[in-house]
Amino acid sequence: MGEIMAECPSPIEMSNWIPMKTNAYEFAFEVDRQIEALSNEDYHRRVGRSKKLREELYPLSRLALHFKQPGLEVEVQGFVDCGRPDGYIRITGFLNREFEVQITYAAYGCKDALRAQLLVSEGFTPGAGDIQREKKSKRIIATMGSVAHDEHIVRIASGILERFHEKCKKRYAPGTVLLIAFQEVKLYGCTNWHQLLVAIDEKGGMFGSSFAEVYLFNGATNELRIAA
Q1: 217 and 59 in contact (C-beta within 8 Å)?
Q2: What is the pTM of this model?
Q3: Which residues pair with 77 in a beta bridge?
Q4: Among 50, 60, 68, 134, who pairs with 42 as Cys (CB 3.0-4.6 Å)?
Protein backbone atom coordinates (compact mmCIF):
# COMPACT_ATOMS: atom_id res chain seq x y z
CA MET A 1 0.00 0.00 0.00
CA GLY A 2 3.00 2.30 0.40
CA GLU A 3 2.95 3.22 -3.26
CA ILE A 4 -0.52 4.72 -3.20
CA MET A 5 -0.66 6.18 0.30
CA ALA A 6 0.62 9.74 0.71
CA GLU A 7 1.10 11.85 3.78
CA CYS A 8 -1.27 14.77 4.06
CA PRO A 9 0.52 18.00 3.08
CA SER A 10 1.14 20.33 6.00
CA PRO A 11 -1.37 23.17 6.64
CA ILE A 12 1.37 25.68 5.73
CA GLU A 13 2.04 23.98 2.40
CA MET A 14 -1.66 23.56 1.62
CA SER A 15 -2.70 27.11 2.59
CA ASN A 16 -0.87 28.46 -0.46
CA TRP A 17 -3.30 26.89 -2.88
CA ILE A 18 -6.36 25.39 -1.16
CA PRO A 19 -9.48 27.49 -1.79
CA MET A 20 -10.86 28.83 1.47
CA LYS A 21 -14.54 29.17 2.35
CA THR A 22 -16.28 30.74 -0.64
CA ASN A 23 -19.28 30.31 -2.92
CA ALA A 24 -19.69 27.16 -5.01
CA TYR A 25 -18.75 28.77 -8.33
CA GLU A 26 -15.54 30.36 -7.06
CA PHE A 27 -14.56 27.18 -5.20
CA ALA A 28 -15.00 25.04 -8.33
CA PHE A 29 -13.12 27.57 -10.47
CA GLU A 30 -10.15 27.60 -8.10
CA VAL A 31 -10.04 23.82 -7.80
CA ASP A 32 -10.13 23.47 -11.60
CA ARG A 33 -7.39 26.08 -11.96
CA GLN A 34 -5.15 24.26 -9.51
CA ILE A 35 -5.71 20.90 -11.22
CA GLU A 36 -4.90 22.39 -14.62
CA ALA A 37 -1.66 23.82 -13.18
CA LEU A 38 -0.39 20.37 -12.15
CA SER A 39 2.38 18.82 -14.19
CA ASN A 40 1.51 15.72 -16.20
CA GLU A 41 3.49 13.56 -13.77
CA ASP A 42 1.92 15.05 -10.65
CA TYR A 43 -1.57 14.75 -12.13
CA HIS A 44 -1.30 11.05 -12.89
CA ARG A 45 0.73 9.95 -9.87
CA ARG A 46 -1.73 11.46 -7.34
CA VAL A 47 0.62 12.23 -4.47
CA GLY A 48 0.43 15.12 -2.01
CA ARG A 49 -1.23 18.13 -3.55
CA SER A 50 -2.49 16.25 -6.62
CA LYS A 51 -4.08 13.53 -4.49
CA LYS A 52 -5.92 16.07 -2.33
CA LEU A 53 -7.16 17.98 -5.36
CA ARG A 54 -8.30 15.01 -7.45
CA GLU A 55 -9.68 12.75 -4.73
CA GLU A 56 -11.26 15.26 -2.33
CA LEU A 57 -11.54 18.87 -3.46
CA TYR A 58 -12.67 18.19 -7.03
CA PRO A 59 -15.52 15.86 -5.93
CA LEU A 60 -16.44 18.34 -3.16
CA SER A 61 -16.64 21.19 -5.67
CA ARG A 62 -19.04 19.21 -7.86
CA LEU A 63 -21.23 18.29 -4.91
CA ALA A 64 -21.49 21.97 -4.02
CA LEU A 65 -22.45 22.86 -7.61
CA HIS A 66 -25.12 20.15 -7.46
CA PHE A 67 -26.94 22.12 -4.76
CA LYS A 68 -26.64 25.52 -6.49
CA GLN A 69 -29.73 26.90 -8.19
CA PRO A 70 -31.48 30.27 -8.51
CA GLY A 71 -32.67 31.37 -5.09
CA LEU A 72 -30.03 29.41 -3.21
CA GLU A 73 -26.56 30.50 -2.18
CA VAL A 74 -24.09 27.69 -1.57
CA GLU A 75 -20.96 28.22 0.50
CA VAL A 76 -18.31 25.50 0.53
CA GLN A 77 -15.04 24.89 2.31
CA GLY A 78 -12.40 22.16 2.07
CA PHE A 79 -10.23 21.22 5.03
CA VAL A 80 -6.55 20.35 4.87
CA ASP A 81 -5.69 18.81 8.24
CA CYS A 82 -6.63 15.22 7.33
CA GLY A 83 -9.06 15.25 10.23
CA ARG A 84 -12.83 15.48 10.49
CA PRO A 85 -14.54 16.71 8.40
CA ASP A 86 -13.22 16.74 4.81
CA GLY A 87 -15.57 19.49 3.72
CA TYR A 88 -18.40 21.78 4.77
CA ILE A 89 -21.38 23.07 2.77
CA ARG A 90 -23.86 25.77 3.82
CA ILE A 91 -27.02 26.44 1.81
CA THR A 92 -29.12 29.59 2.33
CA GLY A 93 -32.16 31.01 0.57
CA PHE A 94 -35.57 29.39 0.23
CA LEU A 95 -33.88 26.33 1.79
CA ASN A 96 -31.51 26.62 4.73
CA ARG A 97 -29.15 23.77 5.46
CA GLU A 98 -25.56 23.19 6.54
CA PHE A 99 -23.63 19.97 6.92
CA GLU A 100 -20.22 18.38 7.09
CA VAL A 101 -19.01 16.24 4.19
CA GLN A 102 -16.99 13.05 4.46
CA ILE A 103 -15.15 12.20 1.24
CA THR A 104 -13.59 8.86 0.37
CA TYR A 105 -12.08 7.44 -2.82
CA ALA A 106 -13.00 3.98 -4.10
CA ALA A 107 -11.57 1.35 -6.44
CA TYR A 108 -8.03 2.71 -6.66
CA GLY A 109 -5.35 0.29 -5.53
CA CYS A 110 -1.71 -0.65 -5.95
CA LYS A 111 -2.14 -1.86 -9.53
CA ASP A 112 -3.86 1.38 -10.50
CA ALA A 113 -0.96 3.35 -9.01
CA LEU A 114 1.51 1.24 -10.98
CA ARG A 115 -0.44 1.86 -14.19
CA ALA A 116 -0.31 5.60 -13.51
CA GLN A 117 3.46 5.47 -12.96
CA LEU A 118 3.96 3.46 -16.14
CA LEU A 119 1.81 5.90 -18.10
CA VAL A 120 3.98 8.79 -16.92
CA SER A 121 7.29 7.07 -17.62
CA GLU A 122 6.43 5.31 -20.90
CA GLY A 123 3.45 7.26 -22.24
CA PHE A 124 1.37 4.09 -22.43
CA THR A 125 -0.05 1.49 -20.07
CA PRO A 126 -2.41 -1.46 -20.62
CA GLY A 127 -5.84 -0.88 -19.16
CA ALA A 128 -6.14 -4.52 -18.11
CA GLY A 129 -3.85 -7.44 -17.46
CA ASP A 130 -1.16 -8.24 -14.92
CA ILE A 131 1.14 -5.47 -13.71
CA GLN A 132 3.89 -5.57 -11.10
CA ARG A 133 7.20 -4.03 -10.12
CA GLU A 134 10.33 -6.15 -10.38
CA LYS A 135 12.10 -6.39 -7.02
CA LYS A 136 15.64 -6.10 -8.36
CA SER A 137 15.35 -3.66 -11.24
CA LYS A 138 12.32 -1.75 -9.84
CA ARG A 139 10.97 -1.68 -13.40
CA ILE A 140 7.22 -1.91 -13.88
CA ILE A 141 6.26 -4.88 -16.02
CA ALA A 142 2.77 -4.99 -17.56
CA THR A 143 1.04 -7.42 -19.86
CA MET A 144 -2.14 -6.81 -21.81
CA GLY A 145 -5.27 -8.72 -20.86
CA SER A 146 -8.96 -8.89 -21.66
CA VAL A 147 -11.89 -8.39 -19.30
CA ALA A 148 -15.66 -8.83 -19.48
CA HIS A 149 -17.55 -5.87 -20.92
CA ASP A 150 -19.17 -5.17 -17.53
CA GLU A 151 -16.05 -5.79 -15.42
CA HIS A 152 -15.96 -2.16 -14.36
CA ILE A 153 -19.48 -2.33 -12.90
CA VAL A 154 -18.63 -5.16 -10.49
CA ARG A 155 -15.23 -3.69 -9.60
CA ILE A 156 -16.52 -0.20 -8.88
CA ALA A 157 -19.53 -1.51 -6.91
CA SER A 158 -17.23 -3.62 -4.72
CA GLY A 159 -14.89 -0.69 -4.17
CA ILE A 160 -17.74 1.64 -3.25
CA LEU A 161 -19.17 -0.78 -0.70
CA GLU A 162 -15.74 -1.37 0.82
CA ARG A 163 -15.26 2.36 1.43
CA PHE A 164 -18.87 2.75 2.61
CA HIS A 165 -18.51 0.06 5.28
CA GLU A 166 -15.17 1.49 6.42
CA LYS A 167 -16.73 4.92 6.86
CA CYS A 168 -19.70 3.47 8.74
CA LYS A 169 -17.36 2.22 11.48
CA LYS A 170 -16.75 5.79 12.67
CA ARG A 171 -18.99 8.40 14.29
CA TYR A 172 -19.69 11.72 12.62
CA ALA A 173 -21.64 14.88 13.32
CA PRO A 174 -25.42 14.66 12.84
CA GLY A 175 -26.44 15.37 9.26
CA THR A 176 -23.08 14.47 7.75
CA VAL A 177 -23.16 13.66 4.02
CA LEU A 178 -20.90 10.96 2.57
CA LEU A 179 -19.38 11.49 -0.87
CA ILE A 180 -17.74 8.43 -2.47
CA ALA A 181 -15.63 9.34 -5.49
CA PHE A 182 -14.09 7.11 -8.13
CA GLN A 183 -12.78 7.36 -11.68
CA GLU A 184 -13.95 5.12 -14.49
CA VAL A 185 -14.16 6.40 -18.05
CA LYS A 186 -16.34 3.45 -19.16
CA LEU A 187 -19.04 4.24 -16.61
CA TYR A 188 -21.24 6.98 -18.02
CA GLY A 189 -24.87 7.57 -18.88
CA CYS A 190 -28.10 6.27 -17.40
CA THR A 191 -27.64 2.61 -18.33
CA ASN A 192 -24.24 2.26 -16.70
CA TRP A 193 -25.32 4.11 -13.57
CA HIS A 194 -28.41 1.94 -13.29
CA GLN A 195 -26.27 -1.18 -13.58
CA LEU A 196 -23.91 0.14 -10.92
CA LEU A 197 -26.70 0.89 -8.44
CA VAL A 198 -28.25 -2.52 -9.08
CA ALA A 199 -24.87 -4.20 -8.48
CA ILE A 200 -24.50 -2.28 -5.22
CA ASP A 201 -27.95 -3.39 -4.06
CA GLU A 202 -27.22 -7.00 -4.99
CA LYS A 203 -24.11 -6.87 -2.81
CA GLY A 204 -26.08 -5.67 0.21
CA GLY A 205 -26.69 -2.02 -0.57
CA MET A 206 -25.90 1.06 1.50
CA PHE A 207 -28.54 0.94 4.18
CA GLY A 208 -28.61 1.58 7.91
CA SER A 209 -25.85 4.18 8.08
CA SER A 210 -25.91 7.40 10.10
CA PHE A 211 -25.21 9.53 7.02
CA ALA A 212 -27.95 11.93 5.95
CA GLU A 213 -27.22 11.17 2.28
CA VAL A 214 -24.69 9.19 0.26
CA TYR A 215 -23.51 10.51 -3.11
CA LEU A 216 -21.39 8.83 -5.78
CA PHE A 217 -19.16 10.86 -8.08
CA ASN A 218 -17.33 9.68 -11.20
CA GLY A 219 -14.42 12.05 -11.76
CA ALA A 220 -13.78 10.69 -15.25
CA THR A 221 -17.20 11.75 -16.54
CA ASN A 222 -18.13 14.51 -14.06
CA GLU A 223 -21.35 12.67 -13.11
CA LEU A 224 -22.91 12.73 -9.65
CA ARG A 225 -25.68 10.45 -8.34
CA ILE A 226 -27.40 10.13 -4.99
CA ALA A 227 -27.26 6.51 -3.83
CA ALA A 228 -28.80 6.54 -0.36
Answers
A1: yes
A2: 0.84
A3: 88
A4: 50
